[in-house]
Amino acid sequence: MLAKSTDKQIDRTMVAIAILAAGRGTRMKSDLPKVLHELGGRSLVERVLYSCQEIQASRRLVIVGYRGELVKESLIASSEKEQENSQLPALEFVEQTEQLGTGHAIQQLLPHLQGFQGDLLVLNGDVPLLRQQTLKQLMEIHKQHKNSATLLTANLPNPQGYGRVFTDSQNLVKAIVEDRDCTQAQKQNHRINAGVYCFHWPHLEKILPELKADNDQKEYYLTDAVNFLAPVMAVDVDDYQEILGINDRKHLATAADILQVRVKDKWMAAGVTLIDPDSITIDDTVKLQPDAVIEPQTHLRGKTAIGSGSRIGPGSLIENSQIGANVTVLYSVISDSMVAENSRIGPYAHLRGHAEIGANCRVGNFVELKNSRVGDRTNVAHLSYLGDASLGEKVNIGAGTITANYDGVKKHKTTIGDRTKTGSNSVLVAPLTLGEDVTVAAGSVVTEDVPNDCLVVARSRQVVKPGWKLKQPKTVDS
Ligand code: UD1
Ligand code: CA
């Protein structure tokens, strides 16, 4: 579409995104950069990036400084993990070696955006609850009104700590004054700056060198840019919870609560039963099928998926694991593992390091499985450890069976064929292969491979001596 003649030099189609992620976040009292603190399965800055996914941006710039390499590595790793990101432009990292304020951070973009004629969406890296829709609306209003800058604002019941936004009757911004620079009268204004702005870059580019650090913190404030630009418009968010900025651990906990309500409402609306929702936590990276039931004190984390009709909990932790349909998990911990349909896990099972449980299995009562595959209809029902093992179908692992998979240096594999049964308290010393239809006698220590259809007894024979008695020691009196 052709631009209007009055607006010839303004290209309203190009958008670049810049995220401010260079600060340490002193108020977090942490070695970890603030923007890497985690909220519901994603870091704060990852969430900010996620909220911009619907914006058709041509560039994505992240300004890093304090432990910048760490922030960079973390964002690269997460963008590789998220397939959604495949359509998005690659992240570009811009260094702000000294953190002299949000305005100074944006000044670092000058050499990178030379000649860029579009709009720049700027987001603080510590505003993790923004909705994609909110940012789309902000961009639309910005374009529609051909503003020089448009910023997201909210009326907060408690605006303490935020910059206050002063507007005229047309919603045009006159000034933004930081909380610490406000007079008592200015503090009565509850309209705050969310730290999310859309600037027309050619305008911002011109005035960035004008910013002065004449404030309480002696920092270059991006918010002072509004003094040099016009028109600058404020756009209120409907739900002020969206723009919560995380400055300390208390804010982080508040944001986690808000996110939990959102995530739980979504899954309940989609047909999932949550029993005692307040005692449950669900990362928003988790996927649940209708008719799943999540019982109290259960925590679902990371890339976890739960199938329809499954009942998880009470008292379970599942992370980065795929649970099929109609599975029950009771008082158990499952990480980086898979469980197929109709299996029963627990009470007190620990599946980890790529355990794969087939369909219709029973695993539980103090059983640990690590990096092991279990075929359909196999039971490992009591007091066992299976590590680096591969079990066929319809195997029965007797109570207390242990794979001795570690020789002190290396881990070794155990393979167990279909329908094989191990007696109670067997020790299977790996590397070891038991064929199909093998029976291992209780208490055996099996060190050599066993072919199909065998009974293996690997323990000393019982000795019974009839009439044998301990000699009574003589006492003085006798
Ligand atoms: C900022 C705004 C304030 C607004 C609030 C919203 C300014 C001057 N103030 O205040 O008006 O109400 O956000 O949450 O912008 N950062 C850098 N480099 C720096 C300094 C900061 O990249 O030199 C980054 C931080 O990592 C952070 C973001 O900018 O992600 C905001 O910095 P922060 O110190 O939290 O600003 P606030 O004091 O909260
Ligand atoms: Ca902040």
Q: Which helices and strands occur, and which strands form pairs?
A:
Layout: E1 15-21, E2 38-39, E3 42-43, H1 44-51, E4 59-64, H2 68-81, E5 91-95, H3 102-107, E6 119-124, H4 132-144, E7 149-155, E8 164-167, E9 173-177, E10 191-200, H5 201-207, E11 232-236, H6 249-269, E12 273-274, E13 281-282, E14 287-288, E15 293-294, E16 299-301, E17 305-306, E18 311-312, E19 317-319, E20 322-323, E21 328-329, E22 333-335, E23 338-339, E24 344-345, E25 349-352, E26 356-357, E27 362-363, E28 367-370, E29 373-374, E30 379-380, E31 385-387, E32 389-391, E33 396-397, E34 402-404, E35 414-416, E36 421-422, E37 427-429, E38 432-434, E39 439-440, E40 445-446, E41 455-456
Residues 20-23, 35, 63, 65, 96, 99-102, 104-105, 124-127, 162-163, 176, 178, 192-195, 221-223, 245, 247 line the site of uridine-diphosphate-N-acetylglucosamine.
Residue stretches low in confidence (pLDDT < 50, at least 5 long) are 1-11
Rough outline: elongated
- State the total count of DSSP E strands: 41
Question: Strands of the biggest beta sheet: in what spatial order?
Answer: 12-15-18-21-24-27-30-33-36-39-41
The name of the CATH superfamily of the largest domain reads Spore Coat Polysaccharide Biosynthesis Protein SpsA, Chain A
Figure out the total of helices. Answer: 6
Fraction of residues in β-strands: 25-35%
- Reported CATH architecture of the largest domain: Alpha-Beta Complex
Distance between the termini: 119 Å
Radius of gyration: 31 Å
Quickly count the domains.
2
Q: Describe the largest sheet.
A: 11 strands, parallel
Mean pLDDT reading: 94
The CATH topology of the largest domain corresponds to Spore Coat Polysaccharide Biosynthesis Protein SpsA, Chain A
> From the helix content, strand content and strand pairing, which structural class follows?
alpha/beta
**Which cofactors or ions or other ligands sit in this model?**
uridine-diphosphate-N-acetylglucosamine, calcium ion
Share in helix: 10-25%
The top-level CATH class of the largest domain is Alpha Beta
